[in-house]
Recover the amino acids of this structure.
């Protein structure tokens, strides 16, 4: 039905896809697997007409095609269900589903009677009888919204349906419903492209599996010829970093987390030694960032205790956490990490504003110090942070926090969107910091990074800390199977 | 900032500098056009007196706008604080000092309510202060009715005496502008507003207590409006319920001319003064030139649009590099 030949796509600093070929047949469920950053999303967006490939060919039912827009792909019968929602909360289920082509009266107005009918019919066909076409989307649960999203894609009666992590927001019950729908569509000859991290699901539903790794196709396989361990091997199987760092962990405990629960995580216990790098691994949505924000005082901790350097602490807001020596480098660097419109010095100043009443030179002294120490590449410290590269912006954020002289640094996805050279620099910086006695809580979805840096690794899944692995017993395969819930 | 060169681009981007130059230029032109009317000490001190009330309110508005907020209720607070002090003196025979203190406390309370509802409950500042504008105006009407007069000498002297040939409101204005300008440049407290206006979430994650700071901004702004209200009714010798009508828009205009942006994160206190000064000089010129009063508002509106349009063009020029 759809054939991709030697598709390539590069972004500044990263080859997202490199000569990827893929054949999707009518009436099959085709899973695409790969780690974060393997190029799955880029590939999907090319099929859906959102992104132009730099190179390569798309062949639709035997004819070469070029999608210059999302519409062009939709007109051919390609529909995509994204991870992010595209629904309008303040409209009804039916209006959302038929937002593109609502039934019209002879006056050219929306024919609501017809709209309710059509939607009811569609929902019944999908086994979603309990959802009312007139109901507001805002009143639905996340799982129900996801189902509406899928119904919306199906309303256009596509020949090719792309699903991006469709089960990440839904429960067991909806998953069963969804799989029944997919089976039925398959029997009707619809081709389905299915992206998921969850091994169990993939083997339950997929006919064929294509594996991507660092933008390169690793081949397509009949699902029956693979087992989960082999699949993970294919996804991960890159050369491991040649040497991991020596540990600098001391015997004193820096942070002790005792049975804490809060929004998005439950009953978490672990500790971090002085000079240790403790990594939290897990899939997106496992609750790692939520946990980090709670440790930083930005979200409430409902039950459990927190001890920092031996003293019990409880933070009402980040300000209190910072005063006690905790620093937090957020995941979304551009939107909440740096002040893009402010200079480098001012960025450093941001975390020092509670230290004294009068403004003093401490920010500019610190900025100058870290400019050299972290080798921030900029002609001047008066440069706006927004004009720096991602790697240098991250160094500015690090400089801001190091200027507060923290004892614990929480760092969330430190190298996302950062080029390879700057990555290596940041790793070295983090490692040097532990030598000076700083403890680091590292959150990362990049397993090689975790294995390179971490002294111990906590694997989280669905808001719980499953297991803490020592550096020498951890492997990508083990972490991934724990995180995905396939470990026996 | 210390190493910037005096290129045209830099002058245009530094609003305090460009506005100062514009004002100097405007004054030169007006001196040449109306040497006997414009360039006199009397006219000069009158212009300063007229802009003093607006400027004091504009300083508070500038703090809010640096933090990405604004307050539409300041005009009503001006009438309210004057009205409350006047009512207590006129009907309750309260000593002047206590009445003034009560007027200022009333104003501060309005700011506290605004700030608390906006920061803690999450009401949109536009809606909250628009509603408060009506509520406080209503109280001002109840307090001063058709207008209160015959205040004690001790009250009148606050706004009607002279020092070095300048009326006291001018001195209050200069003191407030320079004092708060100093604090904004030198204290960590006021510096936080630049970060809150620049990126609220990032500010919180940098340890700034955003909610508390927001409440403070509304309190400071309302207190300054309260001071302006006391000065105004003392200067007029009367508390009028119509005082400060339309003031909020005039002040926001001045502050935006002075370099603030609705998005927040930028602006300087001196800019608020210069914006108000610029508007006062234009007004003065129109009066001397006997242009109909109706045109004044039209011309100020046009100037505001031109100033903001120029900003957008400059922004595009910078971002294209």
């Amino acid at each position: 039905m759809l054939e991709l030949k030697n598709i390539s796509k590069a972004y500044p600093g990263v080859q997202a896809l490199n000569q990827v070929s893929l054949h999707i047949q009518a009436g099959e469920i085709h899973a695409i697997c790969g780690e974060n950053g393997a190029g799955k999303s880029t590939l999907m967006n090319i099929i859906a007409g959102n992104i132009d490939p730099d190179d390569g060919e798309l062949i639709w039912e035997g004819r070469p095609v070029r999608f210059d827009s999302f519409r062009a792909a939709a007109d051919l019968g390609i529909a995509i269900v994204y991870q992010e929602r595209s629904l309008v909360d303040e409209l009804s289920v039916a209006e959302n589903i038929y937002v593109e082509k609502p039934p019209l009266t002879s006056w050219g107005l929306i024919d609501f009677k017809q709209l309710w009918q059509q939607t009811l019919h569609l929902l019944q066909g999908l086994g979603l009888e309990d959802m009312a076409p007139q109901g507001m989307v805002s009143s639905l649960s996340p799982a129900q919204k996801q189902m509406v999203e899928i119904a919306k894609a199906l309303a256009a009666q596509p020949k090719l349906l792309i699903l991006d992590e469709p089960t990440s927001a839904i429960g067991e019950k909806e998953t069963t419903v969804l799989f029944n729908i997919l089976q039925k569509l398959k029997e009707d000859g619809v081709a389905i492209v299915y992206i998921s991290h969850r091994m169990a699901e993939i083997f339950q539903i997929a006919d064929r599996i294509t594996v991507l790794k660092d933008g390169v196709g690793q081949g397509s396989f009949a699902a029956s010829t693979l087992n989960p361990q082999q699949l993970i091997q294919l996804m991960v199987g890159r050369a491991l970093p040649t040497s991991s760092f020596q540990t600098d962990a001391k015997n004193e405990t820096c942070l002790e987390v005792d049975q804490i629960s809060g929004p998005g995580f439950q009953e978490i216990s672990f500790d971090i030694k002085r000079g240790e790098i403790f990594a939290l691994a897990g899939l997106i949505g496992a609750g790692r960032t939520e946990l980090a924000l709670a440790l930083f005082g930005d979200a409430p901790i409902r039950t459990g205790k927190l001890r920092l350097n031996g003293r019990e602490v409880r933070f009402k807001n980040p300000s209190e956490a910072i005063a006690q020596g905790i620093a937090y480098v957020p995941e979304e660097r551009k939107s909440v990490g740096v002040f893009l419109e402010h200079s480098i010095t001012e960025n450093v100043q941001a975390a020092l504003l509670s230290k004294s009443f009068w403004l003093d030179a401490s920010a500019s002294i610190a900025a100058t110090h870290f400019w050299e120490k972290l080798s921030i590449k900029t002609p001047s410290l008066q440069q706006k942070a927004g004009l720096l590269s991602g790697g240098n912006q991250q160094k500015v954020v690090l400089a801001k926090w190091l200027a507060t002289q923290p004892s614990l640094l929480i760092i969330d996805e430190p190298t996302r969107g950062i080029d390879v050279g700057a990555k290596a620099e940041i790793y070295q910086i983090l490692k040097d910091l532990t030598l000076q006695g700083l403890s680091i809580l590292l959150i990362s979805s990049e397993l090689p990074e975790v294995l390179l840096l971490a002294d111990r690794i906590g694997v989280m899944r669905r808001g719980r800390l499953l297991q803490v692995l020592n550096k020498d017993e951890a492997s990508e395969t083990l972490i991934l199977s724990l995180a995905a819930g396939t470990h026996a | 900032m210390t190493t910037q060169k005096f290129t045209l681009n830099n002058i245009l981007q530094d609003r305090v500098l460009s506005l100062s130059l514009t004002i100097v230029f405007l004054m030169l032109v007006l001196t040449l056009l109306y040497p006997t009317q414009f360039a006199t000490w009397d006219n000069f001190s009158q212009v300063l007196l007229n802009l003093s009330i607006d400027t004091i309110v504009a300083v508070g508005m500038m703090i809010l706008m640096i933090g990405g907020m604004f307050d539409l209720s300041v005009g009503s607070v001006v009438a309210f604080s004057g009205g409350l002090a006047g009512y207590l003196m006129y009907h309750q025979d309260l000593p002047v000092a206590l009445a003034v203190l009560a007027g200022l406390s009333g104003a501060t309370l309005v700011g506290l309510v605004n700030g608390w509802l906006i920061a803690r409950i999450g009401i949109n500042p536009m809606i909250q202060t628009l509603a408060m504008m009506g509520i406080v105006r209503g109280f001002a009407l109840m307090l001063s009715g058709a207008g209160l007069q015959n205040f004690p000498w001790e009250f009148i002297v606050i706004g009607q005496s002279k020092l070095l040939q300048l009326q006291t409101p001018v001195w209050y204005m200069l003191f407030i502008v320079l004092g708060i300008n100093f604090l904004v440049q030198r204290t960590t407290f006021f510096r936080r507003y630049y970060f809150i206006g620049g990126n609220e979430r990032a500010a919180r994650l940098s340890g700034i207590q955003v909610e508390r700071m927001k409440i403070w901004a509304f309190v400071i702004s309302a207190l300054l409006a309260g001071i302006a209200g006391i000065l105004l009714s003392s200067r007029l010798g009367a508390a009028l319920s119509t005082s400060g009508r339309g003031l909020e828009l005039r002040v926001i205009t001045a502050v935006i001319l002075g370099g603030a942006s609705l998005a927040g994160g930028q602006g300087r206190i001196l800019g608020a003064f210069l914006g108000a000064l610029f508007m006062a000089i234009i007004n003065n010129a129109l009066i001397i030139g006997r242009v109909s009063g109706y045109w004044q508002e039209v011309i100020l509106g046009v100037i505001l649009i031109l100033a903001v349009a120029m900003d957008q063009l400059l922004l595009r020029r910078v971002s294209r590099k």
